[in-house]
Amino acid sequence: MNPVLAELHDKARAVLDPVHYDFFAGGVGDEVVLAENEAAFRRRALLPRVLRGIEVRQDFPVLISPTAFHKLAHPDGELATARAAGTTTLVSSMASTVPIAEVVAAASGPVWFQLYVQPDPAVTEALVRRAERAGCAALVVTADSPVFGRHRRDLAHGFHDLPAGLAAENMRDLTGPGLRTIEMSPAVSWGHLDRLREMTALPLWVKGILHPADAVLAVEHGVAGIVVSNHGGRQLDLVPAALDALPAVADAVAGRVPVVLDGGVRGGGDIAVALALGASAVGIGRPVLWGLAADGEQGVRRVLDVLHDEFLHVLTLCGGELSRDVVVARC
Ligand code: FNR
């Protein structure tokens, strides 16, 4: 792990209520996948090309992945994250503790809205309209959550609700006065995705794809992009590391839409490995939360800056261009 990210993690753990730290840090089941997401990067090595004479000029291929409840990390919550994002795309969680309109207003770069399709179509449509009115540039439908993941740390703490004064603000007054809770539904299908495409002109991404056949279906259903993700090890503790699922998905998609990888990215070298294995960009979840908890807006900015700097450094050392042959197994 990049040492700055490690330092921010340690500071976050020291300042956070242990119950909230565990909510952010934890995964599902035995947390096998949580550990595997990071371990999968350590199983790879980079085989650099040399003497290519390429000076690296490359956009920062990173998005901020959607994570819930930023006010548990810092009183400014998603406002701090949005201010820190700069030109980096912020995928704002439907479960944010700041309403999406305020998140977009605080950001200077693109904000995408992450959506869990709700069992009541009127609620889903109201959320989409909120995202459109706020000025979001895309919708990201999370597909890996037909039910809530069972997080042992949260169950052990009895943590299942936000403290008084905090709420999932995007759910406020949706069909009547008051708050609705976010629901997960196993009834959500590709048909819902089709209806969303008819409902809105926003580009539609799907997040939480692991099987190459689902990647093909997503392309056939007209998505603008795919996020290969196991939800940061928070849904099913039997799946592969996100990185291990990436190459087959990238092959199946064959460049028709961009493929983003999230899960376990903890340094600039990890970004390079993911790009070499077929990702157009990576998403980062927990490191942003650690930066936010440790030092608010400044902390999130540090996370992004250090990843950017390290990525460019690694890319230069790899000869400026990445392709699958520069990644080998670490024996
Ligand atoms: C998440 N993630 C997530 N995903 C999503 O689509 N909607 C959400 O509301 C949340 N909420 C959430 C909360 C917390 C605390 C975590 C850690 C994660 C999953 C997230 O978008 C992403 O897939 C992972 O966090 C990526 O893994 P890393 O970078 O945390 O290893």
UniProtKB/TrEMBL annotation:
GO molecular function, one term: oxidoreductase activity
Protein name: 4-hydroxymandelate oxidase
Catalytic residues of the enzyme: H231
Binding site for glyoxylate: Y116, H231, R234
Annotated FMN hydroxy acid dehydrogenase domain residues: 1-331
Keyword Nucleus: no
Residues involved in FMN binding: 66-68, 93, 114, 142, 207, 229, 262-266, 285-286
Cited InterPro entries: Aldolase_TIM, Alpha-hydoxy_acid_DH_FMN, FMN-dep_DH, FMN_HAD, FMN_hydac_DH_AS
Organism: Lentzea jiangxiensis
Cited SUPFAM superfamilies: FMN-linked oxidoreductases (SSF51395)
